Amino acid sequence: VEDMVSPDTCVCRTDEGRLVEGLREAMLETVIPRGEADRIMVVLGKHAGRVGRILEREPSRSRALVQLERDEAGQLVPLDYDAICHYVGGHEDD
Q1: Are 65 and 76 a contacting pair, CB within 8 Å?
Q2: Which positions ≥6 away from 76 have C-beta within 8 Å?
Q3: What is the dihedral of CA 19, 4, 22, 26, to 10 degrees?
Q4: What domains are there in the chain, each with its CATH number?
Q5: Predicted confidence (pLDDT) at residue 93 exceeds the cutoff of 60
Q6: Secondary structure (DSSP) of 16-80
Q7: 3-class SS of residue 11
Q8: Could you read off the pLDDT of 28-77 as tens digits, one per residue?
Q9: Which residue among 4, 43, 74, 79 has its CA within the 20 to 30 Å range from the CA of 23?
Q10: Nearest one of 86, 85, 64 to 76, comparing CA atoms
Q11: What is each CA distance from 68 to 29, 38, 48, 81, 88, in whole angstroms?
Q12: How far apart are the C-alpha atoms of 23 and 2, rounded to whole Å?
């Protein structure tokens, strides 16, 4: 996702670099990272916008146990796959 045009419409960039405008949420599918060191961003719910890492996956229930970054207590939250996506942005310290 490159830009949010409205709360339910966005502009996305394909792997080939082409921009696609006017996409609605129902047209998109979240990508759950497979690597252990990959980061995620919470996109739905009260933790939306937070970045973290998946500690455990429950593929049969489409859920993951996520540890949120920038949380002194190392908060762990169980989240549905639909509530998270692969995060490829920079670190908050960047």
Answers
A1: yes
A2: 55, 65, 66, 67, 68
A3: 110
A4: 1-29 (no CATH), 39-86 (2.30.30.30)
A5: no
A6: TS-EEEEEEGGG-------STT-EEEE-SSTTTT-EEEEEEEEGGGTEEEEEESS-TT--EEEEE
A7: strand
A8: 876 778 877 788 989 889 998 899 999 999 999 999 999 998 766 778 99
A9: 79
A10: 64
A11: 22, 13, 11, 15, 15
A12: 11
Six token digits for residue 56? 């455990």
Six-digit token pair at 49? 């916008």
**Torsion angle of alpha carbons 91, 6, 47, 63, nearest 10°?**
-100
Tokens of 19: 């921009």
